[in-house]
DNA sequence: AATCTCTCCAACCGCTTGTGT
DNA sequence: GACACAAGCGGTTGGAGAGAT
């Protein structure tokens, strides 16, 4: 009993023809994205649903930018990679119009080689190195292990009110384990945050993170470090649903990206 | 001109996660 | 809780084109 094949036997493989692209584009334009297996069947494409999805998302979807990755984008990729490791999808979300596949390919074909040639500051692009302003930055670059711990995916998160000492505790309903202590489920959830990366951002004494942001991620730090048995039970606090999905990783990214924006003179973006 | 080697990138593949029943 | 299915993700592969010999 092997794995059930995800695709019919009679499927096309390899490069997509113009006709196939048109067929897929028309179908998605009419019926929308999703249900990719049905897209493949209903549109009359002899393709695997996954293949249709990938073709659409990486190539046909309106707004996809192709080629000519700018210096700014390159810097962004380098810095995001330092922060996130090989989480191409997350990196791609921060680069409008770029796909995870393209960024991954660009990294593998260009940046990884480029950075290999710069062993002393592996995460600083050549453009950055030429800038005096970036000289400081260079000394601060810390290489992230390629096998940096993978953050968990987090859905809706509840958090308790700010405590008197300014510590915010986070509770994730989806991660709460029946029968386990609240502390355990907290710890489980908090693995989501790579503390070394947090510290990497936070201990940057030279960084000019605006005060508000400093407070923001200080709180996140404390979330990760306040998980002591002495802390009061989360059930003691009234929980509030955040207005929107709150993703600690996103918060971290925002902090880092604001730094980047300021760095690149794009503060108003 | 022919052949080989290298580079790039679209596409494939297997695994994980989310969701519905 | 178990299962099935869909979607998402990242590593890898293979073909096309460019450059070298």
From TrEMBL:
Annotated compartments: Nucleus
Stated name of the protein: Myb-related protein 123
One GO cellular component term: nucleus
InterPro entries attached to this UniProt entry: Homeodomain-like_sf (IPR009057), Myb_dom (IPR017930), Myb_TF_plants (IPR015495), SANT/Myb (IPR001005)
Residues covered by region (Disordered): 117-148
Any Pfam family hit: Myb_DNA-binding
Keyword vocabulary terms for this entry: Activator, DNA-binding, Nucleus, Repeat, Transcription, Transcription regulation
Domain Myb-like: 8-60, 61-111
GO molecular function: DNA binding
Main location: nucleus
Keyword DNA-binding applies: yes
Biased composition (Polar residues): 117-130
SMART domains: SANT
Domain HTH myb-type: 9-64, 65-115
Superkingdom of source: Eukaryota
